[in-house]
Amino acid sequence: MQTSKEAPEKMTTDQSISPERPDFISVKDFNFFYGKKQALHAINMDIPERQVTALIGPSGCGKSTLLRNFNRMNELIDGVHHEGDIRILGKSIYDKGIEVISLRRSIGMVFQKSNPFPKSIYENVVFALRISGTSKKSELDECVERSLRGAALWNEVKDRLHESALGLSGGQMQRLCIARAIANRPKVLLMDEPCSALDPIATVKVEELIRELKQQFTIVIVTHNMQQATRCSDKTAFFYLGKLVEYADTQKIFSNPSEKQTEDYITGRFG
Amino acid sequence: METARHILTSFEDALDNLRKDVLMMASLSSRSLENARKGLFDRDEDWCNTVIADDEEIDALEIQVDGEGMEIMLRFHPFASDLRNVIAAMKTSVNLERASDQSVGIARRARKLIALPLMPVTSRIEPIFNLASSVFNDSIKSYADNDIELARTIKGRDKELDELNREFADSITEMMPQNPDHIRGFLELIFIARCLERIGDQAKNIAEDIIYAVSVKDIRHSHAAR
User: Fold this and answer.
1) Are residues B8 and A268, on separate chains, in Cβ contact within 8 Å?
2) Are B171 and B189 a contacting pair, CB within 8 Å?
3) Do A254 and B11 touch (CB under 8 A)?
4) Region A60-78: what's the mean pLDDT?
5) In chain B, which residues have their Cβ closer than 8 Å to the Cβ of A226?
6) Which of A15, B24, B34, B133 has its CA 20 to 30 A from that of A103?
7) Helices (H), A46-168
8) How far is B192 from chain A (nearest CA, A)?
């Protein structure tokens, strides 16, 4: 985690690093407010390293709000405040020494509607590197190939890297956004309904990509698609009215949930 | 506590129809067993023929239940208790169909016995028949009422049925050397007892499946009744 005086931490992709931490992201007694309205109530959960954690629940339950708190994106909204803490690798993201911009650089984010910049494919991927001062062509080229391969897009675009990103299909644009998100080797990848605007084939390609990416990144995904949650995620958290109702292995949540509210939601008895 | 209905009425209706068809199958299977009893003990060939003829309807229902279950899984992707109930329904229909096949087996053997002179030893099979009927009907009731307490009694009673069958077969076998003219009839009775023992097995399967569907406890292949 970068402080104002330290260089940004680089994430290694070495598979032989220490076993996954079960509390890679730790949410402790977290309350969040939009002005006077409390959107999250006493959230406590540990998100394990290099696994996919799905956040599910009806609209307005707070799952996207929680997601946007992991990289402090919510602070861009006037009048918000929080209580409690969120820690990544044991360090609070709210520490006074934490530079918010650097935090956001270390956490990649992909949104529901893909948002490639009106630039070339190449420039989209290297945008963050250029902003941070990298200009050496070899480094930029390496980043582009690594990131596009990581996003399973390299073979489809390697011969047209300098063409506009806006000429890509919807699914390709979303994978480009994923490539852009992982270019800076973040620790965490946040995905807010990444497939909801995609056709079924593009969706399965992104889901397959998520399965591969979790070998390197800790992934948190908000999804309305419960079948997607069962296919893609290792753990699932069910939210309702700003509260975490149940959080467990995905297999348990969808086969034998402990809470009646969870059962009622996933079986379509309310929502 | 009553469970809320699904928001998607087509899903709710599909689950209801699946359950109704399984209960219809159960009712027909139970009736077939009862008709086989009448055919055997009343020496009435008409009842035996009824059992054999009615099996076609039960077979057709098994196919229908399978189709309905598959369609529910395809269209609605059920989770949790819904998924378990759909799978339990499909498995129960298989066990009901097999039980019905055993009733047909009893009816066919009973027809052969009817063609032979009356054998008083036939009455010895009545306790086995009573127990098999009771176990089978209770397994159906446990499915109908989601009654896992009743379901848990089935396994032990099926063991009792297995023991009765063994004792019966042994006792009939012992009678054979002294009554060589009745050997053909004795063999039919042994096969009928075996059919009843298998009906007990189907009932045990139904009970195990309903226990899993309701409590998510898999008691198959365990020695404990609970």
Assistant:
1) yes
2) no
3) no
4) 95
5) 77, 79
6) A15
7) 63-70, 100-105, 121-131, 137-150, 154-157
8) 41
SS3 A133: coil
Domains contained in chain B, CATH given: 9-215 (1.20.58.220)
- Whether chain B has a CB inside 8 Å of the CB on A23: the answer is no
**Which residue carries 């709710």 as its tokens?**
B12
Min distance B43 CA to chain A CA atoms (Å): 50
**Residue in A closest to B80 by C-alpha:** A255
- Tens of pLDDT, residue by residue over B5-47, are 998 898 999 999 999 999 999 999 999 999 999 999 999 999 9
Strand order of the β-sheet with A243-249 is: A91-92, A80-88, A25-34, A37-47, A243-249, A235-240, A52-56, A218-222, A188-192, A107-110
Cβ atoms < 10 Å from Cβ of B123: 9
Give the separation between CA B11 and CA B72, rounded to whole angstroms. 7
Could B7 and A269 be called an inter-chain contact, meaning their C-beta atoms sit closer than 8 Å?
yes
Q: Which domains are assigned to chain A?
A: 25-266 (3.40.50.300)
Of A85, A103, A70, the residue nearest A27 (C-alpha)? A85
B3–A269 CB contact, under 8 Å: yes
User: Which of B4, B8, B83 comes nearest A264 by C-beta?
Assistant: B4
Confidence of residue A270 (pLDDT cuts 50, 70, 90): confident
A92 to A26, A70, A135: CA distances (angstroms): 9, 10, 32
A255, B83: Cβ pair inside 8 Å?
A: yes
CB-based contact B119:B185 (threshold 8 Å): yes
| Residues facing A218 on adjacent strands | A188
Structure-block tokens of residue A235: 């753990």
Q: Render the burial of B163-184: b for 16+ CB within 10 Å, e for the rest.
A: ebbeebbeebeeeeeeeeebee
Contact A254 B79 (CB under 8 A): yes
Q: How far is B140 from chain A (nearest CA, A)?
A: 24
Rounded to a whole number of angstroms, the distance from the CA of B90 to the nearest CA of chain A is 18
The span from the CA of B84 to the CA of A267, in Å, is 12
- The stretches of A97-153 forming alpha helices (DSSP H) are 100-105, 121-131, 137-150
Phi, psi of A67, rounded to the nearest 5 degrees: -60, -45
> Which token pair is A237?
């958290």
* pLDDT tens profile B209-218: 999 999 999 9
Residues of A in contact with B216 (CB under 8 A): 255-256
